[in-house]
Design goal:
The chain is of the alpha+beta class. The chain has helices spanning about 5-15, 30, 50-60, 75-85, and strands at about 20-25, 40-45, 65-70, 85. Strands 3-2-1-4 form a four-stranded mixed beta sheet, with helices on both faces.
């Protein structure tokens, strides 16, 4: 799956419209983009179910399978994402 700049920009735009303050791309889409089957995002600033509404909007609009997790509260997993992921916002 190709994750081009246009798609990344649109993901950031949508995330901002939902109130996101941070957005990090991680997982196979950063490690091995040519083999990625979905996009993994970590997000901060989008409360509760709104986070899943954002994920649905991105999936629907960009026609890409997506997994999304909150960055808060901080865990060892989210700390690893913050260190190794690609910061989009």
């Amino acid at each position: 799956m190709i994750i081009d700049e246009k798609r990344i920009n649109r993901m950031v735009e949508l995330a901002r419209s939902f109130g996101a303050t941070r957005l990090i791309l991680f997982g196979s889409s950063t490690d091995m983009p040519e083999k990625a089957r979905d996009i993994d995002l970590a997000c901060d600033g989008v409360p509760g179910w709104k986070l899943f509404e954002l994920a649905a909007k991105i999936e629907e609009e960009l026609d890409i399978p997506l997994d999304i997790i909150p960055l808060t509260p901080s865990t060892r997993f989210t700390q690893k994402i913050e260190k190794k992921g690609k910061v989009l916002l």
